[in-house]
Model the fold of this input.
Amino acid sequence: MGRYILRRFFHMAITLFAMITLMFFLFRLLPGDPTATVISPALDAEAREAMRARFGLDRPLIEQYLVYLVNLAQFDFGLSFRTSRPVWEQIELRLVNTLLLILPSMIAAYMIGAFGGALLAWYRGGRVEGNVVLAATALQSAPVFWLGMLAILVFSIWLNWFPTGHIVTPGRFPDPSWRMYLTLDFLHHLALPFFVNTLYNLCFPLLLMRSTMLSTIGEDYVELARMKGLRESRVLYRHAMRNSLLPLATTMPMILGWSVAGSVVIETVFSWPGLGLLMIEGITRSDYPVVQAAFLLIAVLTILGTFVADLLYGLLDPRIVYR
Amino acid sequence: MRMLRSFLAAVWDIPSGRIALLVLGVFAVLAMFGPWIAPFDPMVRNYGADGRLIRLSGPSAQHWLGTTLMGRDIASQLLYGARPAFLVGGMTAIGTVLIGLNIGLIAGYFGGRTDAILMRITDIFLGLPFLPFIIVVLAMSGRSIWTIIFAMTIVMWRSTARVIRAQVLSLREMPFVAAARTTGASDWAILFREIAPNVLPLALVSTAFALAWAIITEASIGFLGFGDPNVISWGSILYDAYASQVMYRAPWWVVPPGIAIMVLVSAVYFIGRAYEQVINPRLRTV
Amino acid sequence: MSPPILEIDGLHLGYATRTGTAAALRDVHLSVDAGESVGIVGESGCGKSTLLKAVMGVMPPNAAIEKGAIRFQDIDLVTADPVVWRRARWSGIAMIAQSALNALNPVMRVSAQIAEAILAHENWPRDKVRARIRELFEMVGVDSSRIDDFPHQFSGGMRQRVLIAMALALRPPVLLADEPTTALDVIVQDQIFRRLNQLQEELGFAMLLVTHDLGLVIENCERIVVMYGGMIVEAGPTAQVIAAPAHPYTLGLYNALPRLGAAVEPISIPGRPPDLERPPAGCRFADRCPFAQARCRTDPPMRDIAPGHWARCHRTDEMEALRPAALDPDTWERAADTATTTDPDIIKRI
Done:
């Protein structure tokens, strides 16, 4: 197990490093000069140079790259073009906001999906199964932002049960701090995006679990478990479902990555001040250090998710670790 | 071509696949002839007989699905939107599968260091946040439909490559490969003449899923406001509705584009799944 | 005489399919006495595995017992409360599963898999359970230090031994074995059967062995049951059935057996098993039988040949005269030819 973790960790480190490097060059080599909007061409040459020097843009690319690496290692994402203050100040709470929305929602989606899919397969052939499969496919095929819009339409506008967006009632916490997470107001705001994101994300594990279970149920060891006189519930959970979790676990990093990356959309619909929304705001304001930092953190979350899922997979399948 | 025909025949044999093919067919016709069917120019602001702008009117005999805040005909916008969905989805799916198929084939067949390097690269792409990456590329190099296709393709091949590689790994050990080798066939000949045809069915399933995913992503990009400004897409209709701040008074503006996306993508999913059942009968229910 | 420990009485079982019902088992009568070995032989698809699953009560959802009884220690499991049947599994009737590779759950330690079988029926403390598992491993000849290994850490032969250990966990009076050694090479197969026979002598369980290999049955079982197309076509003491097979299908199976030093080549029976959804009228073997006559299109009677030996055939009386012809491969070829020309159903299927 130790060697397995070590190997996975090594892979993660390589991916992370490659991502950081890719990021750096992506932002500098794509057509378009991100600094043009900040450093106004109207300024005279000397003033422009001074500005460039202030953001370190006058040095050779390779030197910029090294400085960038060193700074990153110290969680220094540079200065925001807009506020001229460290980017990290803007990032910190945004990161928490994204995690508070995405993580619980993904865990719920996977739990419901796994159990739902298992039960669908176990009691297969009925009317319910067909309808649920159809509904899950339709939901999965709908864009999540549209589901969000419909949810707002129904639950916020028509029924007036939930606020239409934001993380707390605007103006209530003029100075955002950790205290706001401990309020009922926060949960009230969290409910709708959480519900929509969970509903959307549970379709994939549900459908996958169902089809995996359908083939697992036919396995000899499931039949043997029944022959041993075990209770049906034990056959279902310990044997059929336990083994069907493996393919689900392999897809988890991918889905976790998608959902962190996809948080851009859900955060936009619900004006949820997370990393995704920060990134979009950064782009509209041409604040590239912010965009870069938000993007990088989303990537790091994706990669960390993969790593955790890999470890989980190692725990679930003894054949992987002992090989 | 023969492959495509047998693909269609196989999907047609499964009831859900047949319905899905018919739905896809209807959408394809709309994508082709939508602009001619559309009753109005989707960008024209429509004025009533009294000379006033018909803004936010509900569905009526004249405007089937009502009008937008700017008095544009939603039904016409919807009909125009089918084409970019097909164009972006189709091109991306084809590009994705071509890259993914080749990388998967090469990595799986040659193994060893080639495989290790290609798979590390795939891992890096798997760590790339999909939608944010595309948005950054669009923000920096201009919003055009071709950039969208390019950016999506560059990221999406990763999943296909993995699936294909796994299949090639098991095919490589099959007797017919050994037989081809004894006749003195070169590695490339074995790879593309013997192995490739056997992974094509899987590649077709992959294409379907890539298509579905690309259509949803294209809509998301449009919704975030990064779509091609010269193209009306379902995503951009929803963006306009959302940005107008009044969409909550006009469900007819919000509901139809989403339904269109949902139905089209569902059809594609069902086709993919039907074909998956054909190539892997274990997935079939009793 | 004491009653048989397991008795299958007139069992009919059908599978619901898309197009109708497949008659998988028809009028199956079989009894097993305490401590005896009975072998069921037949080609794949003859219903022998279905029969075992029916006895264990783990049929697929589309299968249904239409008629008949399965009596274990004089209790009919078919009509009894499902809980009674569940309790009888493993503690009363255990099974050595067919494929050693897939029968063990890959993600559970084998000790846990055996323990759950024990704990489903007995309320033993943990120590006692583990002691029993160690003892079982010793019994089947596997190092008892390996009880906590995962299935993939064992070789094929070892896994099969583990499955036997699992089957014996609760000392069941009846043991079913479904092709227990098909996946293994001959030497390992031999070792395992020797161990099984030894254990049977020690523990006194009755064994119902299902296989397509007539040779295994001859070597290991006191009685033979021959199945064809979901029915038992012949049953009797092994020596008696081998010396004087009374059903043409048994003759065919016996001919197919390779014999050391014999002058005759093994003859396989041409043709395929019948379509159970639309079984032929009368004798189900008639289409492939070299000795079929017009009357074979009517249901054949169950005829007693000798005490405990019976067969389901119209021509059992003439068998003495027919046996020499059965040794000639041409006899069987001709039967296949006529079958293909006379039965339009078969032509359609080929």
The two ends of chain C are 50 Å apart (CA to CA). Chain C touches chain A through 30 residues (CB under 8 Å).
